[in-house]
Amino acid sequence: MLVNGIWQSKWDPVQKKDAEGRFVRQSSAFRDSVSAERVNAVVSQQKQALGVKLYVAYICPWATRTLIARSLLGLEEYIPISVVEPVLSDYGWKFGDFPGSTATDHESFEYMHQLYTRSDAEYTGRATVPVLWDVEQELILNNESEDIVRLFNRDLRPLHRSEVDLLPVTLEQQIISFNERIYESLNNGVYKAGFASSQGAYEEAYAEVFRTLDWLEAHFAEQRFAVGEQLTESDIRLFVTLVRFDPAYFSLFKTNRQRISDYSNISAYLERLLQISAFAKNTRVDHIKAGYYSIQALNPNGIVPAGPELDWYSYLEELS
Ligand SMILES: N[C@@H](CCC(=O)N[C@@H](CS)C(=O)NCC(=O)O)C(=O)O
Q1: Rounded CA gap, 12 and 60, in Å?
Q2: Which residue from 30, 64, 65, 104 lies 20 to 30 Å from 234 (Cα-Cα)?
C-alpha cells in the first residue's frame, strides 16, 4: 500500500482486521463522475473520445461489476480498458504478459499504485482496482465500483447502446435492500470467512454465507432475477460472487458446506446469466484461479487446484 505517496515494501495483502480477527475492507477515496459537458461533446460529435479509461482485474469481483455494466450498457466503444495481471506483485497490481492482461508496452504505467500517486502525490491507502481514469487530466475520477456502475448507468445514459436500466427508479428501494442483504453476508462475507484470523470470526462469516445462499435458493425457486422481472445492478453484484464461489471461495476461503453447483435454483440462475455475453465474456476463470490461489497467506505453496469441472465452463468456451 501507499503511505504519503510512498510504496511500502512491507504491507499486508489481507487488508485490515478488527480486534476479534474480522476482515475489514478499506473505503474508497476518489468519488467523481464524468462531466455532462464531456458526455454532451461526444454525443454532439464535437469530440470523438470520452477521455476516460477503466482499469480492472478479471480476478476482482468489484472490478468485474464495472466490466459487466460497461458491456451490458453498450459502452465498450467509449470506455477502453486496461487489465492488470491476476497475481498481486510485491508492488501491488501490475500490467504484464499473463494472457488477457494488458502488456506493459501498451500501458503508460507499470503498476496500479502509479495511477494513485499521479492523482495525489501524497496518497495514503491501498491501490485498488477498479479505477475510472481521466485520460485528459491524468487523475483518478473514481475508485469505487458501486459509483462506477451507477455513473455508467445514469451519467453516461446518452451514450448507451442498450435499453438496459440497471437501477430503475421503480425498483430502487428493492435493489438497495437486496444489495444490503447480500453485501456483508455474501459478497464481502466470503472474504470475511477466508481472511478471518480467529476461528470465531471464520465460523460467524461461514454461517452468514450459507444463511444467505439458502435464502437465495428459495428466492430463485420463484424469481428469475434478483429483483423484479428484469436485470438490474443486483444481478451483477450477486453474479460476481456466485461465479467465483466453486472455482475459488469454496476451497481457498473454506466456505465449504456446499458448492453453488449443489444448489439447483441458484445454479440455474447462474447459468441463465452466463448465457448473456456481458456476463460470460467478463468471466475469466484462468485469472480467478491464478489470482486467488496466489494469495500466499492462504496458500503458501501457490498450488492452483486442477478442478473443479463445472458444467457452466462450456458457456465460456463458446465465447473464447
Ligand atoms: N471498494 C472497492 C473495493 C475494491 C477492492 O477491494 N479491490 C481489490 C481487488 S478485488 C484490490 O484492488 N485490492 C488490492 C489491495 O487491497 O491492495 C470497490 O468496490 O471498488
Answers
A1: 17
A2: 30
Q: Can you give the residue range of the structural domain that contains 231? A: 169-319
Q: Identify whether 191 is a catalytic site residue.
A: yes
CATH code (residue 146): 3.40.30.10
Residue 78 annotated in active site: no
Total of domains in the chain: 2
127 marked as part of a ligand binding site:
yes
Residue 164 within any structural domain of the chain = no
Closest ligand 1 atom to residue 60 Cα is 10
* Residue matched to cell numbers 456502475: 149
CA 2 to centroid of ligand 1, rounded, Å = 14
Residues 10-42: tens digit of each pLDDT: 666 556 778 888 887 777 899 999 999 999 999
| pLDDT, position 13 | 58
| Chosen domain end from 113, 138, 159 | 159
- Measured by CA distance, the residue closest to atom 14 of ligand 1 is 128
